Amino acid sequence: MTTTAPAATVTHTAALARFGHALSDATRVGILLSLREAPAFPADLADALGVSRQVMSNQLACLRGCGLVEAIPEGRRTWYRLADGHIAPALDELLRVTLFVEPGCCAGEECHCA
Questions:
Q1: Which of 16, 24, 73, 103 is the most exposed place for a label (fewest CB within 10 A)?
Q2: Residue 108, by phi and psi: left (phi above 0), alpha (psi -120 to 50) or beta?
Q3: Tens digit of pLDDT for each residue in 98-112?
Q4: Residue 61: inside a domain, yes or no?
Q5: Residue 49 and residue 58: Cα distance in Å, rounded?
Q6: Structurally, how many domains does the chain consist of?
């Protein structure tokens, strides 16, 4: 039995572009991978990822804007979780992808492949 993937729409394109943008930053990737395990408070995420609380706030705002995480108020604090149940399995699948990377390519934060 062959299944056909649904035709890509403008909405699909925009959603994947937002997901790609989220994955283009190591801190945002760390946040998504952490939240795939369990919801968390920003301060705990900042400590776990070794970034300042201001950096964490900015990155969480970006991920909220992309529609990938949601903020849940709890008293005077707010915790975060992945916004959709499909995100964690998608991240798991991406982690299974093996890419051949040329030596010297994508060293550190900058990609020199182009």
A1: 103
A2: left
A3: 565 566 666 655 666
A4: yes
A5: 14
A6: 1
